[in-house]
Amino acid sequence: MHLPYFLKAPAVAIIGDTCYTTLIEDFDYTHVPCIKYAISKGLGFGIVAGGAIVKVPQIIKIVQARSAKGISFYAYMLETLACVISLAYNVRRNNPISTYGETFFVTLQNLAILGLMLNYTGKRASALIVLSSFLFLGNVLGRTAEHYLEDGTLVQSALVPMEVLVFLQTATIPINLFSKVPQIIENYKNGSTGQLSAFTIFNYFAGSLARVYTTLTEVDDIVILSGFLLSTLFNCILALQMALYWNSAPAPSKIKSEKGDGSSSETKKRVKKLD
């Protein structure tokens, strides 16, 4: 089958000439490598599209409640740091955008959530500092420049050497994991997921699971693969908490309970005096 050019061009750009000919023109669906590659591309672009809106429900929930109660600020700080590093690393490595594109959108949405969290606690100056710092860091890590030597050799230079960026990308594995831990603890202590969005949590779990497959298929990088494997594990825990605490109200604060205990004890004393 021969597709019109306006359909063929994007198809070839996504799965390549060889797989396009094999799957589309020759209808050879026994070619396992091309089948796996096409599935990986489909999942990859699906995750990128999902990443563009994955945290929008979370943002809406915070705005409607005018509160970020139950959401760990430190968890979002760590996750955003890991996202900024990963985005710069993938761009510098020239990895296919289908294998990391959602990181760009998640970073922007995380910055919006951090800004809202600080804004609703009256820390607008801190919000400006935090957002500016992350944007500056991303620019420093990802910026490269190309120039030619006298012999015509093209040389690429960067503010941050690739060796340092590889180390930072490796460091995103524990950073990503620790970014989930505060939220998991917060959920456990409250017996509730607060203003967390179920859509965001479940999509994160599904997305990280799919990313394991796309990384295995398209990117030969054990550092990235290890990160996605461990991220899937912790996202699974958050998804289980979301299911377990579904519609659960937050546990009453200790301060209130202590006051309550105090008032009840005072009442008992008064009753005794009256007796």
UniProtKB/TrEMBL annotation:
Predominant location: membrane
GO cellular component: membrane
Annotated spans, Disordered: 252-275
SMART domains: CTNS
Membrane topology recorded in Swiss-Prot or TrEMBL: Multi-pass membrane protein
Xref: InterPro entries: MannP-dilichol_defect-1 (IPR016817), PQ-loop_rpt (IPR006603)
Protein location: Membrane
Keywords: Membrane, Repeat, Transmembrane, Transmembrane helix, Transport
Top-level taxon: Eukaryota
TM stretches of this protein: 71-91, 97-118, 125-142, 154-175, 222-246
Gene3D superfamilies cross-referenced by the UniProt entry: 1.20.1280.290
Family: Belongs to the MPDU1 (TC 2.A.43.3) family.
Name this polypeptide is given: Mannose-P-dolichol utilization defect 1 protein homolog
Species this protein is from: Linnemannia exigua
